[in-house]
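Thread: "does anyone have the structure for this chain?"

Original post by V.I.:
We have the sequence but no experimental structure in hand. Need at least a predicted one for the grant figures.
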Amino acid sequence: MNEPQPNALAVAESIATALADPQPWAVEPLNAGRVWPQSLAGGAAGIALLHIERARSGRGDPGTAHAWLAVAASGALTAAANAGLFFGAPALAFVTHAATDESGRYQGALARLDDAVTKLTRARLAVAHARIDRGERPEMKEFDLIRGLAGLGAYHFRRHPDHRITYDVLSYLVRLTDPLPADGELPAWWTNVSPNGEPSPDYPNGHGNVGLSHGIGSILALLSLAMLHNVPVVGAKEAIERICAWIDLWQQHDGESLWWPGLVTIEQVREQRIDPSLRPRPSWCYGISGTARAQQLAGMALGDVARKQTAEAAMLAMLRDPAQLDRLPEIGLCHGTAGLLQAAWRMAADATTSPLGAELPNVAARLTTQISRCMHEPELLDGVAGAALALHTIGTGIAPASGWDTILLLA
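Reply from O.Q.:
Generated one for you, tokens below.
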């Protein structure tokens, strides 16, 4: 356990207090027209997760959590093609499961949501396996965390790790890494679209995505977590090794620091070179916050001490580099300092020799300073609700009771 940080906890509590009443949001959402209530990224579901974690940890009012959950469950619920971990039935199911405690509350609603998410997952799996059978390359939305089967797998892994549907998703993720016919120099998860998920003349040959939000990093993290939690999946170890071998090809050294690119293009494959200017900022979605944690998890799952220590050293060097920290002016979990803080806290908790924990107060202090300028953004993924969750974690020094950071595949 990392040492608690009372100042961080106080800021988290002040944010939660400011976001306690869901009625203004229910009448006129603060980001009106952009999302539905059941969005984890920017809707009531995400803010509900903050209050659920506080209630589950004994530091918040369960009534407040219930009120926000009720708003998240209002309106039309979707399990259509646009549904995924961060939107629709799967998002509401994740939040509802997080709210369920020993009292058994919400079990009826959760059972109905489970049924919808399981049907959705099976439909997506059928399409994905058919694509592999045809020998075609995947689109990112087939497998990624935000929209795809890695996200649905994260839900099932958290909700019922011993369920058949969890095994089926994890087995698909293993198959995703199997070489396609005539792959040549490109991995099986290479996609023909651009980083925004759409075809683009700027990416005529597609790209290989490394990040946790939209790339192979999410598969590496989820398969590693499954192994660490003794969820048996045939071929998981080999799949992790295949992913690591490819990412290792692109590991970069910059003086005393180490980093990985957020994506790889066909030109970089042919040149076997990444320009140092393309080093991504240290965010969760594409930067070292997510990539280093995935590498640490893989090292733990494989019993690869060198890989684990390399990941920890890379994170430590970045945390000690003011120039890299300054590249995160945002507060959010996805693109900003909150994601870095949560990832670093998780890595420090699992580190055996690295002094990562000593750097956490500095990151928390940076985040609290940034928040004082951004209180108008309430959302989970890019706003103060997510920042409050990260500060709550470091503030208490205890792993989240609700398991909320499974949505980031940090744990």
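V.I.: this helps a lot. Residues 107-133 form the longest helix (27 residues).
O.Q.: and The first strand starts at residue 207 and ends at 209.
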